[in-house]
From TrEMBL:
The keyword Coiled coil does not apply. Residues 344-418 form the PII-uridylyltransferase/Glutamine-synthetase adenylyltransferase domain. Keywords: Hydrolase, Magnesium, Multifunctional enzyme, Nucleotidyltransferase, Transferase. Signal peptide: none annotated. GO terms for molecular function: [protein-PII] uridylyltransferase activity; hydrolase activity. This is PII-uridylyltransferase/Glutamine-synthetase adenylyltransferase domain-containing protein. The keyword Manganese does not apply. InterPro entries: NT_sf (IPR043519), PII_UdlTrfase/GS_AdlTrfase (IPR013546), UTase/UR (IPR010043).
């Protein structure tokens, strides 16, 4: 049966046009005869639905209408079947027979549904052709644009010689993943285009027979349906298996469309139907992930309803070959651990201990490890009986328990049908109950006793129920114990490993003979070889096994000899081991065991642990008590708990946020786990701030292992350790939630990847402090959810905007919001200094009379807030309440433009302030501070230099906001003066500003800590800098100096760089400019920033922008320069010049 003239001869051979006229055979058969003809081909006469379905009427309907007709027919048939079974359920019968009857009925319905779809094949193919023609046009028009985008991304990421383009690592990782996804999209689109061009013309000759798909297709039942244990409470689980190697591409394409049509029909049915589509030969590794492991046994116990048994067998073999048996068994064992313990008066039929799921987990273990030929529950029980694993009585108990539970599920699934009967019996309240299908409680038991002819008293029912649960709990555990009681051998490179499946413990470690063909007797001296040692503990970290107690003791005995040889540890292999160890899935479990394997404390009480053999600082963390009023555990245990929590949070985040998870790399996994294990390392010195000391110690540890101290990886780790509590502090800014979010965003340097890393470290640490903290972490998760609004666009696939564009747009919106809050604060200040009438109500009356009238009605409330804020005598919370009341009233009655018009007379340099001052400062300061500084800088151009100083709160930096005109070197003077006063620069950002009159200035801020604790004022700073004479570093003496550890990198930034330009008097704009970011990484040193600026000045380079970052004792500064200036720096070897300047000595200036 085909379309004789489905595709006419194309005018353009590359673009066939479709003609949907019928061919000779279709013209001969009218639609009714065609449908009847197809029905007779695909259905046997004994199918119960054949005669009752109105095929003639169905043939008059289109596909959409027929779908509704099909659903109506199902409801009638299902209702009739349920009515019959509802009566049978109440009689004394065997539920095991009933579930087979239900399964048979559903089999026939699925077969009937497939026959209906096959009978619609002509129409389905016609629709497929239309869609394919449309898709062909879409692909032809859309693919070139995607190919161009791929080329653009390749040009962005790689230089013409194929080497990696200089770019910020975080941004490179983002675009690299975007390129990978887009490349895959293009490859998939190209393959689909080729398929359509090949198959579309062939549809005109498409013919099928009754057995067209039998060789390559199997429609199978899974789960309880697959075991023929389907109840009226069950899901109906299906799978569609296709073997592409046994059919043409055209048949595969049509078959997929028929499957989609079958799914459409099933969606209309009032049942929970779940289905999966598989192709033989596809990569099944995704099912080895923990979240998908349950799919494996559902396939292994599946059976064919329609199609090829060979296809199912081949797919089961493929699934079994892929199945990670040990992981699967461990997963099932863990799932048993979370089953509910039933209450005495209530039964969890499915999810309780001794319930259906418990028994099924035991059977699945048997299925995975023993591969029985028969997979139904009672068939497995008979197999276990034959093997002697269970007794005859236990087999009978399993059968009895299964029958009872299935009976209860049928009763509860049909309960709605029994309500009229209960009402007639006078049980009106009972008839109003809404019973859950898997929970058998007192109300369900009462209904069961009144309706069901099985038990005569509640005592009989309770006795039977409790006995069943108790016995099945015991038998299921017994089966699982027998399954798990076996050893598994694994041949590793250096030795044979024997582990026990049930205990998850490594029992033996055996050396090989010289030929490696066989294992010899136990001899742990082979682990005096460092490579064998690395291989063993890396294996434990990757697989989650433990050493047996005896082996752990043996390694403790070996540790003394290893300790004496620790100076001989080769650094290269150790670095590789540590790097892989901290990326493994079960790092926490392996690290915990390595910490427990230890020698006795020495005479001075010093610990010597196995982990400390490689990472000596770990020994100082052993049983160290700090902050015991909050911390429930010693430092070493808290750190291990935090690491274990990190592994849990990573798994949860990956599942919850798959689109954001793609930002993270293997290197990030290392940074996360290392940082969280050593986040409190600074506490080993009780006299230092652990948040400052921690990054320094981590730097020393990783540097000793051979990691580059100036690498992005170490930058990341220093940031995470220093700020492992910062997010907690930001999240507690409850009255300024947005301010906390923006502070967090700026701390992460506007990098989505760092946002995620900081969140995971902060959350893991917080939850591990004590038991109560773990329960109170909700506010952190809420805070991060709010922060994710920044990343919303990254979650959406197909986003064509760049990372920087999305981030900048978000920040621009936040700056506008901040500006509106500053306007409101400024109006409040003026009202306090003057009066409500003078500042707001009088000018508003002429500006917006209606708004003035509405606001005037709240005069008393506004006046009260102004009065109390002016006095300032109330407690902080009360003052805050009055502040927000004033702000709310102005927001409610005035639009933003009206509020700005009222505030404009009081400050003349609005545009300059919000365009020139860096966003990272505008968004990290509260509106009250910005309003004060806006007033401080009003009339800025009347002086060449102006400062605004804000003393930081406890735990926060002091801030120095500044403006300078006509002398770009003033920032070097500012840095020098601040250093001379004992202020260490930790953060900062400086922008270059080009004024309309040709003048050039800078506007920026520094933030730092004051080690001298001396008072600093803006006036004093301005005076000091105006009279400062900088030391001459033009001819520094660098002879006999130790070279500084510095690294200079050049990264092209096409979107991040900008210059502030005054387009016309008083109108400022940020103009994007392609720049080079010169990244300078080095150890923090006094006058470091000043010396960097001096080195740049010596080469005739003045940056367009500067970003200052200090984490721990490491400086990571970015200097944005033009392309010509970058050429100067490269040609004159800026890194060497900088090294010489850094080694120059500066005598104290005494300022």
């Amino acid at each position: 049966m085909g379309f004789a003239s489905f595709v006419t001869a194309p005018v353009d051979s590359e673009k066939p046009r479709l003609d949907f006229s019928f061919g000779p055979v279709e013209q001969w058969l009218n639609p009714s005869l065609f449908l009847l003809f197809m029905k007779n081909r695909f259905l046997s006469a004994d199918n119960p639905f054949v005669q009752e379905f109105d095929w003639t009427h169905a043939a008059t309907l289109n596909l959409k209408e027929r779908k509704g007709f099909f659903a109506e027919f199902f409801l009638k048939q299902w209702d009739k079947f349920c009515a019959q079974e509802a009566k049978l359920t109440l009689k004394r019968g065997n539920a095991l027979v009933q579930v087979e009857r239900i399964s048979d009925w559903m089999d026939q319905w699925v077969i009937f549904s497939w026959a209906v779809v096959r009978s619609e094949e002509r129409e389905v193919v016609r629709e497929l052709a239309k869609e394919s023609q449309s898709k062909l046009g879409f692909l032809r028009s859309g693919l070139p644009a995607k190919e161009i985008k791929v080329e653009e991304l390749q040009g962005l990421l790689y230089l013409p010689d194929g080497s990696r383009s200089p770019m910020d690592p975080a941004e490179y990782a983002y675009y690299d993943k975007l390129l990978l996804e887009l490349t895959q999209e293009v490859a998939g689109g190209t393959e689909e285009l080729e398929l359509l061009e090949e198959t579309l013309p062939s549809l005109k000759d498409y013919k099928s027979s009754a057995s067209a798909y039998d060789r390559c297709f199997a429609l199978v039942a899974r789960g309880g349906f697959g075991r023929r244990e389907l109840t009226f409470s069950s899901d109906v689980d299906l799978a569609y298996l296709v073997d592409p190697s046994r059919c043409s591409r055209l048949i595969l394409m049509v078959l997929q469309e028929l499957i989609r049509r079958l799914q459409e029909l099933f969606v209309e049915m009032p049942l929970d139907m779940a289905s999966q589509y598989f192709e033989l030969g596809e990569d099944l590794s995704r099912f080895a992930e923990t979240d998908a492991l349950h799919t494996i046994p559902s396939i292994l116990e599946a059976r064919v309803i329609q199609g090829s048994q060979k296809t199912l067998k081949a797919f089961q073999d493929q699934m079994r070959a892929m199945c990670p048996q040990e992981k699967m068994v461990r997963y099932l064992k863990s799932q048993v651990g979370v089953l509910h313990q039933d209450r005495l008066d209530e039964l969890e039929i499915k999810e309780g201990r001794g319930g259906l799921r418990h028994m099924q987990y035991a059977n699945w273990m048997v299925l995975v490890l023993l591969n029985p030929k028969k997979t139904r529950s009672l068939e497995i029980a008979q197999g276990l009986l034959a093997m002697g694993w269970i007794t005859k009585v236990e087999a009978e108990l399993l059968s009895q328990g299964l029958e009872f539970f299935l009976d209860l599920r049928n009763f509860l699934g049909l309960f709605e049908r029994y309500k009229p009967q209960l009402t007639a019996m006078g049980e009106v309240q009972l008839a109003k109950e809404s019973l859950k299908v898997d929970r058998f409680n007192d109300r369900a038991a009462m209904a069961y006793l009144k309706l069901k002819d099985r038990f005569t008293t509640v005592d009989q029912l309770d006795r039977f129920r409790l006995n069943t649960v108790t016995q099945l709990d015991r038998i299921a555990d017994k089966i699982m114990s027998r399954v798990l009681d076996r050893n598994i051998e694994e041949r590793l490179e250096g030795f044979l490993l024997v582990k026990h499946l049930g205990s998850n413990e490594v029992q033996k470690l055996l050396p090989y003979s010289a030929s490696k063909k066989r294992a010899l007797g136990e001899n742990l001296s082979l682990f005096l070889d460092w490579d064998n040692l690395y291989e063993l503990f890396l294996y434990l970290a990757k697989n989650g096994n433990n050493l047996s107690p005896q082996l752990a003791e043996d390694f403790s005995g070996l540790l003394g000899e290893l300790w004496s040889q620790r100076a001989e540890i080769p650094p290269g292999p150790l670095k590789v081991f540590i790097y892989e160890f901290f990326q493994a899935e079960y790092t926490a479990q392996a690290a915990s065991q390595m910490l427990e394997i230890a020698l006795p404390l020495d005479s001075e009480g010093r610990a010597r642990t196995f982990l400390g053999l490689f990472l000596p600082e770990v020994n100082q963390m052993r049983y160290l008590l700090r902050n015991t009023e909050v911390h429930q555990y010693p430092l070493c245990l808290h750190s291990l708990k935090a690491l274990r929590q990190m592994e849990l949070e990573m798994a949860r985040f990956r599942k919850r946020e798959p689109e954001l998870w793609r930002f993270l790399t293997r290197e990030d996994f290392f940074a996360l786990k290392w940082s969280v294990l050593f986040h409190d390392l600074g506490k080993i010195n009780p006299y230092k701030d652990h948040e400052e000391q921690g990054p320094k110690l981590a730097n020393l540890m990783l540097g000793r292992l051979g990691f580059d101290e100036n690498s992005d990886l170490l930058d990341q780790i220093r940031l995470l350790i220093q700020h492992h509590q910062s997010m907690v502090r930001f999240a507690k800014l409850s009255t300024h939630m947005d301010l906390g979010i923006l502070k967090f965003f700026e701390l992460a340097q506007r990098d989505p990847r760092r946002l995620i890393l900081l969140y995971l470290v902060n959350l893991s640490d917080f939850k591990s402090v004590n038991d109560k903290m773990a329960e109170k972490a909700g506010f952190l998760e809420d805070f991060f959810e709010r922060t994710l609004s920044i990343l919303e666009e990254f979650r959406r696939r197909g986003n064509q905007r760049s990372l920087t564009q999305i981030t900048n747009d978000f920040l621009d919106r936040k700056v506008e919001e901040q500006k509106e809050l500053v306007v409101l604060d400024l109006l409040l200040r003026q009202c306090c200094h003057k009066s409500l009438d003078e500042v707001v109500l009088t000018p508003l009356a002429s500006l917006a009379p209606k708004a003035a009238e509405g606001l005037g009605k709240n005069r008393k409330e506004l006046g009260s807030s102004i009065h109390y804020l002016n006095l300032g005598e109330l407690d902080v919370k009360s003052l805050e309440k009055h502040y927000f009341r004033f702000v709310r009233l102005l927001k409610d009655h005035l639009n933003p433009e009206e509020r700005f018009q009222l505030a404009q007379p009081y400050v003349s340099d609005w545009d300059w302030f919000f365009a020139t001052i860096p966003n990272r400062y505008l968004l990290s300061a509260d509106p009250q501070r910005l309003a004060r500084q806006l007033i401080d800088f009003d009339g800025y151009n009347k002086s060449a230099l102006r400062f605004s100083f804000v003393k930081g709160d406890a735990g926060e930096y002091d801030s120095f906001l500044f403006y300078a005109m006509n002398d770009l070197s003033l920032q070097a003077k500012i840095a020098f003066a601040l250093n001379s006063k004992g202020i260490n620069l930790e953060q900062g950002k400086i922008n270059q500003v080009r004024y309309a009159g040709g003048q050039i200035g800078i506007v920026g801020f520094f933030q730092g800590t004051n080690s001298h604790k001396a008072e600093v004022t803006a006036v004093e700073l301005e005076s000091t800098i105006a009279n400062l004479v900088l030391p001459d570093l033009g001819r520094p003496s660098w002879a006999h100096k130790t070279p500084s550890k510095i690294q200079v990198q050049y990264m092209l930034e096409r979107e991040k760089g900008y210059v502030v330009v005054e387009r016309e008097k008083g109108r400022f704009e940020r103009v994007t400019q392609e720049v080079w970011a010169v990244k300078v990484s080095m150890l923090d040193t006094t006058y470091g920033y000043f010396k960097i600026m001096a080195a740049l000045d010596s080469l005739g380079v003045m940056p367009l922008q500067v970003t200052v970052n200090t984490v721990g004792n490491q400086i990571v500064d970015y200097f944005y320069v033009s392309t010509p200036d970058r050429t100067k720096l490269v040609d004159q070897d800026f890194e060497t010049v900088l090294g010489r300047f850094l080694n120059s000595e500066i005598q104290s200036q005494g300022i």
